[in-house]
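User: Assemble these into one structure.

Assistant: Restating your components, then the assembled model:
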Amino acid sequence: MIEFLQHSITGLMIGSLYALVAAGIVLVYKSTHVVSLAHGQLVAFGALFFWLFLGGLGLPFWVGLIPAFILTALLGLAIERVALRPLIGQPLLAAFLMTFAIFISLEGVFVLYLKGETRTLPHFLPEGNLVLSGISVPINQLIGFCVALLLFGLVSLIFKYTKLGLGMRATAEDHRLAQSAGIVVKNIFSYIWILSGVVAAIAGIATANVMDIYYMLPYIGINGLIVAICGGLDSLIGALIVGLLLGLVENVGAAYLDPLVGGGIKDVAGYAVLLLVLLIRPYGLFGLVKIERI
Amino acid sequence: MRPCGVFDKSYALDIAIIRTWQHWAILISALLVLYLFPLFGSYYLVSFINLLSISIIVVLGLQIVSGLCGQISFGQAAFMAVGAYTSSILTIRYGVSFWLALPLSGIMAGAVGIIGGAPSLRIKGMYLAMATIAIHFVVIWLILHMQITGSFKGLYPMPPTIGGFEFDSDERMFYIIVTVMIIMTYGARNLMRSKVGRAFVAIRDNDLAGEVMGVNLYYNKLLAFFISCFYAGVAGSLWAHLITVVNTEQFTLLHALEYVGMLIIGGMGSIPGVFFGVLFIRILNELVMFASPALAKAVPWLGSSPAASLGLIAFGLAMAVFLVFEPRGLAHRWEIFKSSYRLYPFAH
């Protein structure tokens, strides 16, 4: 039992990272209806920028955080301005394919910068384990988990109570209607990409806290995409719940099934879950069901 | 390509692939040059054409499922892997001859493709694209975790033989690969003007409307996936016996993305577009390969071997440029050229 709980807790910690990555994707989808494959790169670059200031320049934690946020937000803004704005009015699939072109180019830049090496963030959070009746939780991961929960609350509040959030929700509903109500849709797009850049930077820093920065890091974006789709692309709460669940399934599944099949459950669990969810509920567990007309 | 003043007098003429005697002349001389090419072409060019032809077969399959039927698939690399592994296992472990293993690996990949295409019955567009990414990873995982596929070590298939003659060099494999490529191209071109091809186009343009008009959605979507994966499987088999080493490193998600990129750059829904797209990306890759040592010397920051990552950057940028400025791909430019040639020397 203790063993099971230990695996579950570790899984939940990893799951909160997936949820954080998925949050950025959901944010972008909610108002622009673009599914961003490039989000994994934003996450990876967020981690890399943070490393540059912390490990490279040796700045203290709080000082390094701000330029990392700004740079990642600028990268998000640049993606929106240069690549996605010309595609407004084109089929949505074109925008999806565009994000994958961005993914590939940025992957090239990322690999070029790392040159096959790995970068490790210096320890900027308190070390040690919190032991609770036999279950140990690393404190730095626990902090990441709390940050994830806080961030979800904050973003939901922004969406619900601020004027900007209202504009974003209106834009998500219908671009043209929002425009005739006096909302500048293009500005909303820029804000949303800046916001998603900051969320990506937080996700990247939280991820780099538990693993090294190496060339496979951007592929966490695909895990985030799985979570976002399973949870329903327009549901923040869905991203949180499914993200935690996916971490749980991966870790517990790996612990109990790996000896039976010879390892590697972790790599495939997410995809199996995605296929299952898509077959049973194509619009995700918490997503809005759309009815199509000719 | 028809000069001014040639008119179609019957429906058969209108849908004919080859319309005038000049076409026949060009076709036959082009085929002659192609088949005699290994006699005077350099080894480098011959192996380049081998690579091109295999990519063309894969992208032709993708064209059928994505360009004609409108179901975006990122699983093409995995289906190619299924073909490559099937062919290798059949020839190594069961002693089946290559000539039988080639179509069998296509059918095997097609069968896996039907399972992989099953989600398309309920979802489409971006959701389906994600489902095919998931299928890609599941297939590769299965290959890595089965005994028969040699797991991480991979397999070492032998070159094909016919009556004691071994196709053991790039020049010899050239004939097999190019012949298969030509047959497959003809098949794809023919499919486009058949009833099935028109049903695919109806599904792409509006699946609900197509269904109302009597197109069986399920049957045709699965058929599109089967044909597409058959192409990928045949290409995989050729690939396995060309380079005689098969492992999962050759069939990553990046490869699948590359095939989709070739399709976008070439132009969706057009067979010449496949050739343009594959040529464009492969030549771009070769240019980057040639340029990168010089670049690395000029800019030390790039490190010693920047070719792979520079290739990715160039590929991504090319795709982005095409999506913004020419979403219909190079095939659209080709159509514009054709119609202006047809009008020459008149303006309209």
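The mean pLDDT of chain A is 85.
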